[in-house]
Design a protein that fits this description.
It is a single chain. The protein has about 375 residues and is an all-alpha fold. It has one domain (about 10-185, about 200-380): MFS general substrate transporter like domains (Growth Hormone, Chain: A, Up-down Bundle), CATH 1.20.1250.20. It contains 17 helices and no strands. It is globular.
């Protein structure tokens, strides 16, 4: 991946995210299988656990984003957030039950909630000369590279120790330790006391740009139909009747995602965030239409490849877009508000998707997501740069 014109601190944060995602993504694709196949939980329980985990992260993203603006420091929240996630990951390996999975996921997302907005605000502070898309794209690429390596490590462990899911939870502590080490190298770009945010979210909202408010509303609505990726993994498993193939499909998605994030970030700097982000939602719609009616295993690979392109066109681009709209001393608050509201929507969406799947089968939730994302994608394409 190109590193030209990428600041050193952005590279350090990239390595933090790479190792963290190695650990997280060792567990993410196997957790729903562990819950449903080994522990015997229902799809609704999977949705509830994911929903609780996401709403915890969502609330804390908003709180700590605003807090980091007020104290004028980001690194302390980065160290604490990644440290807590590292400690939470092995719990289901020690206590193999549904409660341990729920606690582990919630604690892990608590750490994510503490670190995400401060980290993204710090990333945004290193952007200049219209390169925010490239910076966030580089970071997303490093983050997602870990999401390629992690599941491959999980597959290797499953091959060497068949159905030993507990071992994978325990092994995740190794890359987590490397991530925590790199957090100690993160340095703040301090905000002067005179510029530090002093107001609440309500005060920020009154002065926020109109375009930010519009984008916030559209992304929040989209997030409701963008339920947890565990449903894509479980659908793939149902079609292929293979745990390994379902995880490999997810690895392939992350490989495409990692490779395309930096190029899409640069394209968003050149052609406009609305074009790349809106186009990504149209691809998302196509993917979910495909998963609604997927006829055979071969199509899983095509859909996961397209899903990787969607993620590369939206995840980093949305934060870069918000970062462009607000001054440095308000970035934590703005990104925190975005991730908080979208997280609440994902929580509701995950529960709804799980309920609809249990009651009506998988086609209905996938179709709902496809239609809504298509409409929002078209609207975003009409927003001016």
């Amino acid at each position: 991946m190109k590193r030209k014109n990428i600041p050193r601190q952005v590279i350090v944060l990239g390595f933090v995210s790479l190792f963290t995602d190695m650990a997280s993504e060792m567990l993410y694709p196997i957790t729903p299988i562990f819950l449903t196949v080994v522990l015997g939980s229902s799809m609704a329980v999977v949705g509830i656990i994911e929903g609780i985990a996401e709403v915890t992260a969502a609330f804390l993203k908003g709180y700590f984003g605003n807090l980091s603006d007020k104290v004028g420091r980001r690194s302390i929240f980065i160290v604490l957030g990644y440290g807590l996630s590292a400690l939470a990951k092995p719990l289901p390996g020690i206590f193999p039950n549904i409660s341990a999975v729920a606690i582990s996921r919630t604690a892990d997302r608590t750490g994510k909630g503490m670190r995400t907005a401060p980290r993204d605000a710090l990333l945004g502070s290193y952007s200049d000369n219209n390169n925010s898309g490239a910076i966030f794209g580089f970071h997303r690429g490093m983050d997602t590279l870990g999401a390629v390596i992690g599941p491959l490590a999980a597959i290797l462990l499953l091959y060497l120790f068949p159905d030993n899911f507990q071992l994978i939870f325990l092994a995740a502590i190794v890359p987590s330790a490397f991530a925590v080490f790199f957090t100690l190298l993160v340095k703040d770009r301090k905000i002067s006391p005179s510029k530090r945010a002093k107001g609440s979210y309500a005060e920020f909202w009154r002065s926020a740009p109109k375009q930010f408010k519009t984008l916030l509303l559209l992304i929040t609505i989209f997030s409701f139909v963008n339920s947890s990726d565990v449903f894509l993994i479980l659908k793939s498993r149902d079609v292929s009747d293979s745990n390994i193939l379902a995880i490999l499909g997810y690895v392939f998605y992350n490989l495409i995602y990692a490779g395309a994030s930096y190029p899409f970030g640069k394209l968003s700097d050149k052609f406009g965030k609305n074009i790349i982000y809106g186009g990504g939602l149209l691809v998302f719609s196509l993917v979910y239409f495909g998963f609604a009616f997927i006829p055979q295993t071969f199509f899983i690979w095509i859909l996961f490849a397209l899903y990787g392109l969607y993620s590369a066109a939206t995840e980093g681009v949305s934060k870069a877009w918000v970062s462009d709209m607000v001054p440095d001393e308000r970035r934590g608050t703005a990104i925190g508000l975005l991730t908080m509201l979208s997280g609440f929507a994902i929580m509701l969406g995950s529960f709804t998707a799980g309920f609809l799947w249990d009651e009506f089968g998988s086609t209905i939730p996938f179709l709902l997501s496809a239609v809504v994302s298509l409409i929002i994608g078209v609207i975003i394409l009409t927003i001016k740069k």
